[in-house]
């Protein structure tokens, strides 16, 4: 496969996943804002969390003087100046799909093209904050449709595998960022600690569509250690860090036909090293040594793996956030 084709497929899948993640985070914050309307103290800084998760704090501060719900939504969803926004992600994904129309199913191109036009219309209109949840639902539904078309119609060859790597490396890194930011928040200072703590970790689970799966595993008890264990180590939840890295490694092994050559050795070792950490550590060890350092290390190694994928297969530059 030509490197330019692999590059387009990798980034097409990665940008759809990135847009989907942003939409989920915004939708959860809007719901949380409604449900916690009587706890204004908890709402004062919760929109800042989304900027921290995106990793684009400096870009945000260059465009906006303060953090408000409307500013954050505009930045993460509608802004063409933000390389991490929903609008930018779908625009890039559509351009990538256009470049490989002869490789992907016709249904996939038509769906992404329509998706782009819908998002463009939202971005160019004078959007109302009351309609943002509908926009988020649109993105989530189109993302699921995108994945469904891929699973139902795309041959399980190199094209599919490069899309798998792009999707799951993005998802793994975003899950770790969500956990990292939410672990940082000091909840003890709030008056209604129990209520705030519950909604805090409920928001984390909802952000990755993991609440129902979590409840089936841990029953109604929601606490930081169980949520962290579920999202880091669970081998069967599709958005856990361990599951995602397994999928990236599996796609890599299939591309290489289960052989490690000199050009792919560095990528194999990086994936092996990260997988071993997720296998060898326990949640008790992560908590004892500090979740921030563990999650930061994971994010750095995800960025490194993204760069190694680009280097190994001569893809375009992978942006580090």
UniProtKB/TrEMBL annotation:
It comes from Exobacillus caeni. Residues 1-313 form the DUF403 domain. InterPro entries: ATP-dep_Glu-Cys_Ligase-2, DUF403. PANTHER family: BLR5612 PROTEIN, SLL1039 PROTEIN. This is Alpha-E domain-containing protein. Pfam families: Alpha-E (PF04168).
